[in-house]
Specification:
The chain has 219 residues and is α/β, with parallel strands linked by helices. The protein has one domain (7-217): Alpha/Beta hydrolase fold, catalytic domain (Rossmann fold, 3-Layer(aba) Sandwich), CATH 3.40.50.1820. 37% of the residues lie in helices and 26% in strands. The chain has helices at residues 34-41, 76-96, 111-123, 139-144, 168-179, 198-217; strands spanning 7-10, 21-27, 49-53, 57-59, 62-64, 68-70, 73-74, 99-109, 129-133, 154-160, 185-190. The strands form three sheets. Strands 1-3-2-8-9-10-11 form a seven-stranded mixed β-sheet, with helices on both faces. Strands 4-5 form a two-stranded antiparallel sheet. β6 (68-70) and β7 form a beta hairpin. The radius of gyration is 16 Å and the shape is globular. Pfam families: Abhydrolase_2. InterPro entries: AB_hydrolase_fold, LYPA1-2/EST-like, PLipase/COase/thioEstase. Keywords: Hydrolase. Belongs to the AB hydrolase superfamily. AB hydrolase 2 family.
Length: 219
């Protein structure tokens, strides 16, 4: 079956199809692309398979996964379709590459963070964890989607204190929502706007590495 999205993949040095590797699927923000996301997790490329998924809808010099009616208000049909296509992508990539299905992570920024959190809620423990940078969960996802338990899903949420796109109170509300669903949610704010600081990046890298290693120890 043809992959629903174009993507950029980085395999660990000495990649061996007989082994199984943890994977990070990255989802970019509105108007960006998959290569911009790679810089966030590049230091992990020798330990993880890294797959940057490009949105299939052109927007300026970049791409998006769905369009909006207004800021924070996705076009429902396009959003629903993107979620289904991303679920299919994760399944197909997991079958194609030497991916450890018990250590699958999704990392997203802005629009990508919105989708990462939605995937956690719809896939449940089929994902090991997510990183959501400056995003939120649409109300219709919470109230109308068929949600799975995220009790065993590790969640890292961060937000800029001066984010003018999605104010920090949205980050606080989102973190509270996930913390009510599990005790594996970490929430951190940074002295920044709608962006990822170096301190935020380092915290994400450390969290991904530690969580992945902990998963191995628990097997």
């Amino acid at each position: 079956m043809k992959q629903p999205y174009k993507y950029d993949i980085h395999l660990p040095e000495g990649y061996d199809e007989a082994k199984r590797y943890p994977v990070i699927f990255t989802l970019h923000g509105k108007g960006s692309n998959e290569r911009n996301m790679f810089g966030l997790v590049e230091p992990l490329q020798d330990r993880f398979i890294i797959i940057g998924i490009r949105g299939d809808l052109p927007l300026g010099a970049g791409y998006q996964y769905y369009e909006l009616k207004s800021l924070g208000n996705p076009i429902r049909e396009m959003f629903d379709e993107a979620v289904l296509k991303l679920q299919a992508f994760i399944d197909e990539a997991s079958a194609k590459y030497a991916i450890d299905a018990s250590r699958r992570y999704v990392l997203g920024f802005s629009q990508g963070a919105i989708l990462a959190m939605t995937l956690a809620l719809t896939l449940g423990d089929r994902l090991k964890g997510i990183v959501a940078l400056n995003g939120y969960v649409p109300a219709f996802v919470k109230s109308e989607y068929a949600l799975r338990s995220v009790e065993e899903v590790s969640v890292f949420i961060s937000h800029g204190e001066f984010d003018r796109v999605f104010p920090v109170n949205i980050g606080n509300e989102t973190a509270a929502y996930f913390k009510a669903l599990n005790d594996r949610t970490i929430f951190r704010t940074y002295h920044s706007g709608h962006e990822v600081t170096e301190a935020n990046r380092q915290d994400v890298l450390n969290w991904l590495l530690e969580d992945s290693l902990r998963a191995v120890e628990m097997e």
